[in-house]
Amino acid sequence: MKRAREEDILMYFHAKYGSKSTVHRFHLYLCEHGIYQKIFNELLNKGYDLNKIGLSHCFTDTKDVPAKKGGISVTMDTKK
């Protein structure tokens, strides 16, 4: 039964979003054009405006840790 449920979910996502490679291409486009960063900044600014975000508690994620071979992935490279 669980297998049938997983197949239903996969069929739903495929019908709604296209193939895995299409979704990945779109993800890369969003990364390369800084769209994720723009969305994040907008959410952050809106959160500050609404007093919903504060820096009394914060953390750093692993994107600050260098890759084993020294490269930077497209998704982690931010344009300045």
What does this structure look like?
It is extended, with a radius of gyration of 18 Å. The chain has three helices and no strands. It has helices at residues 2-17, 20-32, 35-49. The longest helix has 16 residues, at 2-17. It is mainly α and 80 residues long. The model has no long low-confidence stretch (mean pLDDT 76).
List keywords for this structure.
mainly alpha, 80 residues
Question: Taking all residues together, what is the mean pLDDT?
Answer: 76
E-strand count: 0
Helical segment count: 3
- The end-to-end distance, rounded to whole angstroms, is 50 Å
* Largest sheet features: none
Shape: extended
What would you call the quaternary organization?
Answer: single chain
Low-confidence stretches: none
C-alpha Rg (nearest Å): 18 Å
* Proportion of beta-strand residues: under 5%
Helix content: 55-70%
SS-based class: mainly alpha
Order of helices and strands: HHH
Secondary structure layout:
Layout: H1 2-17, H2 20-32, H3 35-49
Nutshell version of this structure?
The protein is 55% helix and 0% strand.
